[in-house]
Amino acid sequence: MDEALMPVQVCYATPAEQRLVSLALPVGSTIADAVRLAMPDMDVDQHRLGIFSKLKTPETVLRAQDRVEIYRPLQADPKDARRKRAK
What we know:
The longest helix has 9 residues, at 78-86. The protein is elongated. It has a single domain (5-86), classed as Beta-grasp domain (Ubiquitin-like (UB roll), Roll), CATH 3.10.20. It is of the alpha+beta class. The chain is built from two helices and five strands, in the order E-E-H-E-E-E-H.
């Protein structure tokens, strides 16, 4: 008997490239499972992760049609950048 699969996406963007990987994972899979499968060279513990712009832990269980997002660290503090522009 085949295990039920659900579609999810994993996305990651850098200034140079954007990667969007579509997967079919077993029901009960976590964010960490999806990231490890989509991007095996990436260390899950070194990045902030989310689903549809909401921060989540790597142990969060996925639902069908979720989009897992891998966030890069900010290059500049948005508040400081806004203050500099206002001057």
